[in-house]
Design a protein that fits this description.
33% of the residues lie in helices and 12% in strands. By secondary structure, the chain is α/β, with parallel strands linked by helices. Strand 3, helix 4 and strand 4 form a beta-alpha-beta unit.
């Protein structure tokens, strides 16, 4: 999505809208759209794209994707083969983390990057307690922030030690990044 030009957010979404209608996407196994201003509307478009049935890796870092976008992605019938989902540097909060933790539509997920988002202790606890992410071997929840405004991420908010321990107990120390 980088290089969309001067179209800004609406231009990025227009390009993504055209892209998701292309049957050529069916040949892709990895889609990297980092930094593309896709936002929740872009996540909706990807979640509704039947051409992504065989996609294994989806990278949507730094796209202003929030909880609504996570809801779309986690409920998509077309993303069940994902093994890697990267959502670093977005606007995912506790609700988004809980949605991923309760998601039955991503059974093959092995790596989940939620670093640099807005996840607090409740979201971390939901991830730690879920039985649904049983194949997860890599979980990154580093550098969470509380508060957000355009151009200013907010105050650092590390996942608290109790939730860190719960995540390590659930996924193992080699799988977790804080």
């Amino acid at each position: 999505m980088a290089g969309v030009g001067n179209g800004g957010v609406s231009g990025a979404r227009a390009v993504l809208g055209r892209l998701t209608r292309s049957p050529l996407l069916a040949k892709l196994r990895a889609l990297h759209l980092t930094g593309g201003q896709a936002a929740d509307d872009g996540a909706d478009l990807l979640a509704d794209c039947e051409h992504l049935r065989d996609l294994r890796v989806l990278r949507l870092g730094q796209n202003a994707v929030g909880d609504r976008g996570v809801e779309a992605l986690s409920s998509s019938p077309y993303l069940a083969n994902l093994t890697t989902l990267v959502l670093h540097g977005n606007l995912v909060g506790d609700l988004g983390a809980r949605l991923l933790a309760s998601c039955e539509r991503l059974p093959n997920l092995q790596a989940l990057d939620l670093s640099d988002n807005l996840i607090g202790d409740a979201g971390a606890e939901a991830l730690a307690r879920t039985p649904l992410l049983s194949r997860l071997t890599r979980l990154n929840v580093a550098n969470q922030c509380k508060g957000w405004s355009p151009g200013l991420r907010g105050q650092p908010y590390p996942i608290q030690p109790a939730q860190q321990r719960a995540l390590v107990e659930r996924f193992g120390p080699e799988a977790c990044a804080f």
